[in-house]
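Reviewer 2 asked us to include a model.

Predict the structure of this chain.
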Amino acid sequence: MKCRHCQSELTTTFVDLGSAPPSNAYLTAVQLKAPEKWFPLKVMVCEHCWLVQTEDYAGAEELFDAEYAYFSSFSTSWLKHAEAYIHEMVTKFQLGSSSHVVEVASNDGYLLQYVKAAGIPCLGIEPTKSTAQAARKKGIEVVENFFGVALADQLVAAGKQADLTAANNVLAHVPDINDFVSGFARLLKPQGVATFEFPHLMQLVQNAQFDTIYHEHFSYLSLTAVCTIFEANGLQVFDVQEIPTHGGSLRVFAQRKDAGKHAVGPKVTALLAREQSVGITQRAYYEGFQTRTDKIKNDLLDFLIQARRAGKTIMAYGAAAKGNTLLNYAGVRPDLLPQVVDRNPAKQNKYLPGTRIPIVSEDAIKVARPDYILILPWNLREEVQAQLSCAREWGAKFVTAVPKLEIV
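Predicted model (C-alpha cells):
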C-alpha cells in the first residue's frame, strides 16, 4: 500500500487489530440472520510524511450510508463544546449577519444550530441521509454529499464561499485527504479561516487509545503530519489549541496559503517541537503499541470472565464506535456482556456489529440493577456517571478499560 498523502510505500505497522465489521454498522433483528462484512483493521505509518493510516479495504460510501446511526446531539457535553466554539469564533473573527459559515460533516445540526441562533447565514455539508434529515428539521440548509474539490467549486460558483469553515472529527474520516483539504482552500474567502478538530495522535499513543481505531478513521493525525498535508494542498496552519474532547484533541486554525493574513503563532511552533521531542518522526515511537493494546484487551477479558464466575452481572453503557473496536478485538460476545445501553433511539433495539450484543434504553439498567457498568465511551465517563447516578443506590461500580482497567 502507498501513503494516501505522499504516495510513499508503507512498510511499518503501528498496530494490527485483526478484522472487524464497520463500527457504526448496527444490525437489525432481521440482519442477525445474515452474514456480516468484516474487513482487516491494520494501521501503518508513513516514514516520509508521518501520516498514520489504515490499510484500504472499505470505501467511504460503504461506511457512511443512509442508515448511519451516529448523532452528535445525544452528548450534552459535546453540545456545550459546540456552543462554546461558536461563541469563541464569532468574537475572535467578528462574524455577523453578512458572514457565511460552512460546516463539513455537519451531522444532525448539533453545531450549526448555534450559528443559526446567532443570526449568521450557514450551510451544512453531510453525506449521511439520516443525520442530514435531522439537521433540516432544525431549519438548517444541508448539502447531502461528500466534500472535496468538486463540491467546493460548485459552492463557490453558487456564491457560497465561507468566512469560516468548521470540520470537527472528520479530517480522520476521509480516504482522499488531499482532495478534502484542497476543497477548503477553494471554499474559503481570501481572508477566511478554516478550523479542524481531530483526536491527537500523541494522546492516542501516550494513553494507548487503540479503541479509537476503526475503519471510519482512515487517518490518525499529528500536527506534524497535518501541517505537511495542508501546505501541499493550499492551506497554512497559523494557530492550534489543545482541547480535552475525545481523550485529547487538537483544534487547528488554517488559512489560504495564497491570501491569509494571520502570522503563524508560537503555539504551532511549540507543539511541533514537542511532537519532535517525543519522537513523532521516528519509527521507534510507534513500536510497542501492539503489546500495550493486547494487555488492555486481555485485562478486560480477565475481568469479564472472573465477574461471570463470581456470579456478578454486567451491562455496558454507550454503543459507541470505540466500544465496538474494543469488544470485537477482545472477542466479547453476549455470554460475557449481555446488553449495552444507549440514549440514541436510532441504536436502541438493534445489535452491535460483530459482537451482536443487544442495544437497550437507559431504563433497562434500572430494571436489571447490574453489579458493574462498563463505560465504553471512556471519554464521556464523568457525563455517563452523572446520568446514571441512580446506580449508586444499589451499589453498582463503574468500569473503564482504556487506557487501563479501572473500577470505580
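The chain has two domains: 72-286, 306-407. The chain has a mean pLDDT of 94. We have added this to the supplementary material.
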